[in-house]
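dumping this here so i dont lose it
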């Protein structure tokens, strides 16, 4: 008989190719089919290509004699090179066995075989079966990010950080900024005012320290570190040279180590956790609350609110040379003549005679909540104060305290309208923050903290430009019926798909709303876990969203055309998920081997326009046995467990868990059915073929999958894989993978770049903890948007090219007989 031996290898560009050779042998117990997979995760963007993952070998588990009797040959013809996947099915459409995943074939006629067993290696009974070969040329293009104004999408010049900018300082064309705690990244950067959309890193990367304040005299740049993450309660002040960013040790400073390995591992200092010659060291929380340095004098000032003191140091030696008693001092600034300005409570104070007996020369009172202060580098009579609270403005004064002008709409976003403009500022509520710096031309940079941007305003108070990036975000979504509306937490961006998404340009997107306006604390951040989980414009033309409620339930809100978010008073419980047609779904806990998935149809709207849902009906009854891909209660992203239905009526279930299931993690079931139509995404090492890595082989992984979405017959789920171990290089990080299947259970492709494969900062396609994503259509193209913990500082956008051109060939015949396959559109 004829036995086909397939060997799969990877050529340049990580494309799987399949070479088939026909070997004539006698029918014997040694007849077999061997398929060796050298798998990778291909990225269509040339900047984001992964190396091949370890080889996996798929071998039948039944005896050779059984395989020989059941060998079924099938033939198919393709008119051009395609990527293919294949499966054997019962005639009712139930997938019996996945034959191969993501193999490239050249144009021509090809012959392959099925050994007659199922996915468990058990021989199938005689009868009719269907063979399907899925073929396509789908590509995954990472286009860039929304909400980041950097000149480049990739590389070390991209503005991005775990937190928004915390502090700014200027010397000539150089602006330095501190970003606070930055999770294994540098906490201090700089840019040139002639090229503000490109940053240069100044401080070394530090996994724990939080640099919250920065000041410069043009020779040195000074950085104040507060207690950061992970048992690091040490605060201190260090310095770098302006000329080359190299670190400076104060002659009278001390050497410190912030974190050490346990004695079991030698007790040495963590990498990048040793700091030499630092001053103002404290081993208790909190640290400095302000920092300023004289440009012409020799004084470095550090404020400590908890001590009611401003400490004065020699800016070169590090010796403490004095102190000033100030009630709860906050941010500081020096005037060109050496006078010190300090924020104290709701006042701003000017101190003179610092070298002898410091005294208050000016008091400016009446602020709502002064947050930062800056003085013109050559004009002692231009003092700018960022005033929060009820003001939300920049206020200018001369040295005597006379008011010169104000910038910003009074009250900011307290005016009942969430629309974002450059004339409105928002420093936050409660724990407000901002930073301000003045250039020699009188223009100034003001941190519009709540909108994740720093605005550059001219001396005549007109808008010039901005630097924007999105800090760590775990919520990103898109209006499911209007893809022009993209959301990051509470920020809304308007997308113009007619314009190419280009780095350094905001022509294809613009920030239009901050829906946190009008919401009470704590529902106001523009980062982290709070924000809009789902947004959808329903059949009445009005737009609704889901946000966290105060009692841990999910609140339904309306996003009106004008005005703040409107609370509908409707709260959802039980992990209910909202879909584009207005339906809700939820799943029960498994009982007696079955998990019931229910749906609630949208039946209309009440007189206030609030959605009204009908009675629950059963969407599907999922078999919940060992190895089945039912929902096991694991973390499922920010929108809850989804059970979307494809255009051919297949409901999709994803098991996100990394423990308790060594079988399949993705399944399809017909609406109303109680039997799996197919099961896919088997447990195993991430191999670029849709395999799901769990603690079965990886004892460091904490989270696996998250959400599953469908478009037509396309099925995509996310695998963020927090703390996964890369089986190729042993690195531990975040997987950041997206698995693409067809709704017949066959694999299409896999994309995304894990953090363990990073070769540069802000690498194309790389995201962190990307567990909040949306699959949407715009201008007939299929896009995937997802959040980012801070790798790029924006909402990522992928285009899935060729999703509509996926086709399948199929043919039906008796087990053991030759089957001819014919093409039909999928």
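and the seq i came up w/
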């Amino acid at each position: 008989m004829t036995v086909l031996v397939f060997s799969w290898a990877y050529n340049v560009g990580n494309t799987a190719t399949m070479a088939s050779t026909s070997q004539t042998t006698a029918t014997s117990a040694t007849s077999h089919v061997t398929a060796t997979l050298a798998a990778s995760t291909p990225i269509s963007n040339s900047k984001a290509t992964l190396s091949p993952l370890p080889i996996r070998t798929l071998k039948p588990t039944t005896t050779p004699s059984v395989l020989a009797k059941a060998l079924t040959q099938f033939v198919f013809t393709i008119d051009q090179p395609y990527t293919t996947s294949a499966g054997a099915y019962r005639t009712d459409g139930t997938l019996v066995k996945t034959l191969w995943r993501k193999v490239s074939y050249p144009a021509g006629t090809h012959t392959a075989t099925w050994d007659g067993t199922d996915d468990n290696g058990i021989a199938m009974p005689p009868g009719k079966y269907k063979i399907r070969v899925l073929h396509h040329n789908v590509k995954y293009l990472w286009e860039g990010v929304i909400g980041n104004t950097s000149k480049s999408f990739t590389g070390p010049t991209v503005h991005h950080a775990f937190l928004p900018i915390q502090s700014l300082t200027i010397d000539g064309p150089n602006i330095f900024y501190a970003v606070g705690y930055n999770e294994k990244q540098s906490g201090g950067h700089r840019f040139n005012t002639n090229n503000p959309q490109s940053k240069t890193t100044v401080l070394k990367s530090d996994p724990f320290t939080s640099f919250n304040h920065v000041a410069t005299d043009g020779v040195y740049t000074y950085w104040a570190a507060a207690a950061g993450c992970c048992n690091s309660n040490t605060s201190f002040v260090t310095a770098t040279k302006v000329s080359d960013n190299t670190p400076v040790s104060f002659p009278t400073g001390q050497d410190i180590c912030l974190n050490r390995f346990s004695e079991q591992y030698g007790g040495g200092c963590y990498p990048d956790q040793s700091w030499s010659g630092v001053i103002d060291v404290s081993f208790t929380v909190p640290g400095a609350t302000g920092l300023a340095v004289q440009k012409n004098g020799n004084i470095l000032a550090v404020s400590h609110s908890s001590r009611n003191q401003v400490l004065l140091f020699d800016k070169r030696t590090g010796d403490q040379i004095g102190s000033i008693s100030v009630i709860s001092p906050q941010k500081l600034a020096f005037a060109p003549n050496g006078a010190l300005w300090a924020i104290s409570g709701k006042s701003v104070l000017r101190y003179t005679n610092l070298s002898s007996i410091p005294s208050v020369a000016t008091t400016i009172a009446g602020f709502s909540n002064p947050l930062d202060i800056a003085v013109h580098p050559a004009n002692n009579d231009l003092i700018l104060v960022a005033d929060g609270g009820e003001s939300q403005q920049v206020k200018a004064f001369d040295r005597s305290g006379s008011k010169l002008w104000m910038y910003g709409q009074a009250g900011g976003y307290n005016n009942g309208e969430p629309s974002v403009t450059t004339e409105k500022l928002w420093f936050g509520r409660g724990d407000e923050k901002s930073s301000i710096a003045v250039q020699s031309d009188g223009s100034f940079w003001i941190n519009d903290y709540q909108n994740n941007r720093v605005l550059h305003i001219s001396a005549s108070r007109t808008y010039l430009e901005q630097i924007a990036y999105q800090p760590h975000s775990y919520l990103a979504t898109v209006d499911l019926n209007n893809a022009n509306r993209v959301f990051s937490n509470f920020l809304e961006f308007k997308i113009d798909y007619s314009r190419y998404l280009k780095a350094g340009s905001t022509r294809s997107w613009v920030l239009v709303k901050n829906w946190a306006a009008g919401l009470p604390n704590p529902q106001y951040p523009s980062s982290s876990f709070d924000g809009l989980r789902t947004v959808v414009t329903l059949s009445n033309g009005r737009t609704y969203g889901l946000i966290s409620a105060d009692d841990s339930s999910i609140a339904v809100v309306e996003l009106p055309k004008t005005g703040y978010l409107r609370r509908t008073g409707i709260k959802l419980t039980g992990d209910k998920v909202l879909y584009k047609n207005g339906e809700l779904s939820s799943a029960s806990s498994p009982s007696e081997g079955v998990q019931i998935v229910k749906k609630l149809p949208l039946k209309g709207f009440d007189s206030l326009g609030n959605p009204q849902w009908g009675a629950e009906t059963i969407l599907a009854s999922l078999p919940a046995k060992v190895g089945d891909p039912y929902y096991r209660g694991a973390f499922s992203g920010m929108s809850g467990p989804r059970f979307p239905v494809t255009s051919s009526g297949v409901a999709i279930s994803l098991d996100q868990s990394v423990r308790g299931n060594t079988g399949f993690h993705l399944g399809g079931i017909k609406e109303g059915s109680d039997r799996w139509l197919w099961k896919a995404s088997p447990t195993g090492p991430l191999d670029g073929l849709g395999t799901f890595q769990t603690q079965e082989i990886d004892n460091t992984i904490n989270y696996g999958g998250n959400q599953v979405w469908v478009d037509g017959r396309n099925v995509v789920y996310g695998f963020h894989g927090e703390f996964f171990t890369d089986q190729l290089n042993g690195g531990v990080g975040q997987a950041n993978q997206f698995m693409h299947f067809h709704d017949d259970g066959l694999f299409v492709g896999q994309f995304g770049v894990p953090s363990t494969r990073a070769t540069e900062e802000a690498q194309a396609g790389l995201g962190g903890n990307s567990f909040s994503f949306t699959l949407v259509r715009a201008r007939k193209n299929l896009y995937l948007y997802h959040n980012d913990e801070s790798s790029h500082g924006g909402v990522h956008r992928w285009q899935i090219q060729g999703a509509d051109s996926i086709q399948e060939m199929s043919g039906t015949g008796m087990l053991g007989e030759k089957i001819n396959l014919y093409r039909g559109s999928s």
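The first helix runs from residue 64 to 70.
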